[in-house]
## 1
Amino acid sequence: MDLAPKQSDTADSSVLKSTVESRLKNFMNEVTGRALVMMESATQNQHGIAMDLVQEAFISLHKSYAEKSTEEWYPLFYTILNNKLQDWRRKEARRAQPFSFFRKVSLDDDEIELNDVVDESTPNPLEFIDRAVTAEEIQEAIAQLPVRQQQAFMLRAWEGFDTHTTAQIMNCTDGSVKTHYHRAIQGLRASLAHLNPHLGGSSE
């Protein structure tokens, strides 16, 4: 029996697996830091929980979407991460409210969409940083925002996703993203205004 084709298939499979593992390693090195910042803010600085969520998202990405291109991994990874965060938040909410299984648990206090919100351009996060405002102070200000506002800001300003892609990741409407993002920018400007007088606050 000719075993050459099987050996060739095995070799091709080994190379493909090695390539995927290499791509995933590079991808993890690039996004882990930002993803952890996002999850630490969303979990109120519970580093262990944040790390678990990020690692679980990477595992799911590798398990279900290994054949996708690296560019496709970005929105897929954050969609998975968002879903895991929402699952964790629901469990925490039910733990805090023992009888919440009898009713739908509301996770957000700012889901009402604002009418006619302009789809603001994606700012460079560094615009908030000058000699008076440090990265640590920005992270602290982000952590004070409601979780959905944190997500909208981080996905748009830090990851550079557009409104529609952000909405797909967050599993909400484009209008909700615009609302969360608009409020996040206002909240950050208000929180950081005393540190940087050039920022100022804006009113709706």
Note: The first helix runs from residue 4 to 42.
## 2
Amino acid sequence: MADIFDVVADPTRRDILGVLLDRETSVPESHGEISVGEIVTALGVSQPTVSKHLKVLRESGLVFVREEGQHRYYRLDRGPLERLEDWLIPFVSTDAAADAAALAGVDAAGDASLRQEQRAFASALGKAFADTAHQVTAVVAATKRR
């Protein structure tokens, strides 16, 4: 299964997710379901291309599919996107530093009495966040080049 960042990095897949979200919000009686043909019409992309991207979205858990005869109806599964959002929040929150300090048990200004192991933990955590931020930046840069 592809990494969720790889999945959402593709603009066509993001467009499909947008169509699914639009269906969910604008036609509530549809329960968010939309046929492949309607997605093709909405995007103006070929049916094989849409099907290929829907397969990736399905395998990554971002969409549900319901089969009815030869027809396939897709709808958005918000679960993976919510987990992605939870992961991203510390990086985009303006209060990230204050949140990290609160989790470490100190005020936002810092506390000179931190024990050595707390400092080591904070350092390791900071390095992990920096490495992850670098990976996200690389994905975003790759997406912009496409």
Note: Residues 17 and 118 are 42 Å apart (CA to CA).
## 3
Amino acid sequence: MTTAAKISVTLLDDDDFPTSFQVLSKSFGHDAPLIDIYFPNHDTPSGQARGSARLAAWKQGSEDSTFLKAVLKSGQDGQERIIGLAVWTYMKEPPPADIEKVENVEEVWPDVDDREYMARLWRDYVVPRTKSIEDSAGKGIFVLELLAIHPEYQRLGAGAALVKWGTKAADDKGVKAVVEGTPVARRLYEQCGLVAEIEEMRFDVGEKFVGRRKPNLIFLSREPKS
């Protein structure tokens, strides 16, 4: 049996969130500015507790989002380890441009400047997926909203398995699959059939935040296959 064959993709259980959020934090480290600002202090115990709670609330509050885990089964002791996390959302309506409509902003970002910066990023972040939804003639799109693989278990096939789950779901509905991906993950997405629509997403944060790190994201999409 190959290593890839030992990896399975299943639905994430509610009690998986603490472990899954740790995977998310380790996966991105501090190399992804959007993750750093969206999940404040995600590498600390308190930040991970808050992040886990937000993911759990998201799962409970969205019927259109599917939370997945990639599990690696050890051949020696038969133990299963969560090594990856993905969230796919079927969107038929454009997401709100105002982050206050989707997050408790004062609680998540008590610092006023952090709150304003996140709001500005979010406003630009949702533009490409909004256009894809508007261009879908009412069919909607499948959005890969989150993908994280534990750094010690990358290149084993978990990322591809999580991505392909969503592209198959998109094919089944006859809709486009999209993702706002990092350059590091671009090769994986392209191997799964997604192609770049926007080579570098635009984030206009204004002079006030010129010194802050901005996300470096590519908008990729995949047309459905019959």
Note: Confidence is low (pLDDT under 50) at residues 1-5.
